[in-house]
Amino acid sequence: MNIRDTHSELYTPIYDMFLMGTFGEYEQEHLAGFVEINDSTKDYKVDDLSGLGPWDQTDEATAGEVEDPVLGYPKTYTPLKYTKTFQASFEAVDDDEYALLKKTAMAEEMGTGARDQVQRLAFGVLINGFTATTNSPDGQYLYDVDHPKNREETGVTYDNLLTGAFSHDSLEDAETQITANLFTMAGIPLPPPKEIVLYHPPALRGPVQRVLSERAMERPSTTMRDINRFVGKGTKYSYKPVESVYLGSALGGSNTAWYMVFKQYGYFKVIWRQRPHYVSWVDYSIEAYNYKGRMRLAAGCDNWRGSFASTGL
Fold it and tell me: Rounded to the nearest 10 degrees, how much is the dihedral formed by the CA atoms of 108, 110, 116, 122?
């Protein structure tokens, strides 16, 4: 029986299994700070709308003032398609009944490549946050000194661009800056994040560990045994340090930049239109079985309030 026409359909589920096995084999560091959303629409839209401000004092027998919400800066995520294809010729299958099965190594490698692409997309949002206005819906850099309060009160601005190399003192300054700038569009202080994801490249592994290690009871680089405020109950925030090679200079990032991301706000997103999977077909013009790995996704940030960062310089 000639089963050429069914070979591609037969093996697609097997290749899906191998692809997803390597796709999820290692920790994907971006998931510490990004929310994943499955969406079936062409574009995923986030409409930013302010809440109401503080209540007004109202005199007896008066209705009080009516306040309308303020429109913020909407964000549209448009998933893009990413693919990779491999082939098995008719002749290879004619000569070796296991030819298609031997392609599993390629399926595994493609799972690794898919994971790599997702990581690059997600961390690219952070890396480009100092230079690309496309990463922030308000038209500013994602990390900037003058984010407008809202569309109507542009004269009031907030600053989420930190300064200085990572250290105990710069982290202390960062906490002060967060408190002074983390307000809603209506001017109400946002609740402090329960956990801050501290993203950093491998080059900052030592400084980060020296400050945030549970054993680092003393401040680094001091001789008077000063207290390390970031150990135990010395700080109002809980830190989760996350190191990623995708943030380093070897992959287009920086060896000095560090990022504080507040995942609980849900502003950093990976929108999945289609998770990694295979489609297959027979190309009779060249007599080959084709297996295409494909996925559709977008990564971005829809509100600068989800992160503060420093170039480390």
Answer: -120
